[in-house]
Description:
By secondary structure, this protein is of the alpha+beta class.
Amino acid sequence: MIRFSLSKFIALPFIITSLLFLILSFNSYAQQENKWHIEKPLIVMQGEEAFLEIYCTEMHDELSLIINGKQEYLKLINGKASYAIVIHKETNYSISSEYGTLETKIKPIPLWFSIVPPLMAILMALLFKEVFVALFMGIFSGTFTIFWFYGFGFFTALGKGFFSIIDKYIIQALNNTGHLSIIVFSLMIGGMVHIITKNGGMRGIVNYLSKYAQSPRSGQLITWLLGIAIFFDDYANTLVVGNTMRPVTDKLNISREKLAYLVDSTAAPIASIALITTWIGAELSYIQDGIKMLNLDETPYLVFLHSLQYSFYPIFTLGFVLMLIIMGRDFGPMRKIEHQIKKPHHKELKATQKEKNDFNPKKGIKPRAINALIPVFTVVIGTMIGLFYTGQEVVGWQTELSFGRNLSEIIGHADSYLALLWSSLAGVTVAVILSMIQKLLSLKESMESMLDGFKLMLTAVLILSLAWALAGLTEDLHTAQFISGSLIRLDINPLLIPGLAFILAALVAFSTGSSWGTMAILYPLMLPAVWLLSQEATMNYQESLSLFHNVVAVVLAGSVFGDHCSPISDTTIMSSLASQCNHISHVQTQMPYALSVGAVSLFAGTIPVAYGLPIPLAFVFGFSLLFILIRFVGKKKPVQT
């Protein structure tokens, strides 16, 4: 017995030593394994470049690897190396280093799927007339697919896709200075509008304009003129004109859908072609990049000026709206809405008591238009001063340039978001001060009115956030590259490039809801394409340059056209909200008009001019077709009884 215990006692050190050896061996192996690892990309689109990330804890400048049997030397930066991959089918990767071998499998998402999320959002919006659910489901279809192809199971992909909508795409959309600026600007404008409504200023404007806007025609004409007057920024145009004219058009029995169309169809078209706007800086930068890439001896500003003569869609849109107003005719869904507004029980004429109180001045206040005009002009003039100030800080005043060129350069390089933020804050402040010094509203009432205005813009903020999230998703999925790549690979006559660019820009803008994003994507693709194809076709320099100017214009025009038709466009959404019109109803009534003008722009302007039709004749031909369309398809409004 004692002998047995003694033997166990003697064997104990050997057992402990063996266990320690095993523990240390496993620990050493784990440390060896932890010295490096790989992370495959979350999103890999078929045929598009993605990156495998390789992490190494050891201090090296270079990592020697064997990837699928091929020797690779990757530079390590802060312990991370990137390996570019382009795959078209499910691929296994075996990566070996001095630390061992790691394996991973990557299954690419078919590139054609990139169009599914925006199309789902658009179709659901049109079918179910519920924009929140439509946008959410569009994003969800994309996020679920991302995690499914990454390798997660069905239910795990559902869960991860669902939560990534908010923790990735919505947060990512809001973590953007420009987006936050638009939200704050919108809130401020909403607060200002509610204050000038409560202090009687808005009622004063309605009473004043009613002297001149005594009929639906004159009311629409004033709305159109205001839209032209606020040419320098499409966001400011939309919010100021929509909110200011809504009480006037309501009084004249003009439908909210018609007001939203007037607002939407004067905002981006005029801002995109005017010489001093918040758009011109981006436009000139894209043109400059194209010129630099092709080594052309041209200046971006002159290219932009020459391109304006080819801007058929914006010009035809402005003229088409004016013809509709003067001729007093409508067609399609707009005609039906305008007919219904004449009926005493039309839904737009119904309002809850709370809604009536929201847009009525405080009792006992004498309406004075000046109490609204001063804050509104503060926003307008303040925006222009802000644009000049921020732009002048960047480029200064160049003595060798003319006054007009200097002004355009300054506005083109301005920080429009800062200008809008400053002007909207100034507008709210002025509205509060005017209300208090005249004892129209107390400080407490002014603040309550401002907060009520903020609440009215909550719908806008939610929809814009979802629209931006969807735009971020389409960027990750390479939606624009799929559309443009599908068309640009076609071997076609260079004279067809302007028409193709217009269609392509319209499709991308319609799918992504962003005219600016469309320009950023297509200018680098289409400008080199049209120039190189025209040179290969042995065109002379002037002929090639004319086609180049045409494409500069049609990418911009097509972007605005697609933006007008898209229910997920931020400017279309803002037009609906500023006019307090049902968003889907606005899209349905505007689309036939936009499609009509788009078709005339393409077949009477862009394509014939590319083949040699003189530009003045194209405008005459186009406006004639639009006149005939309104005259014979449109019908006059019924007389109110």
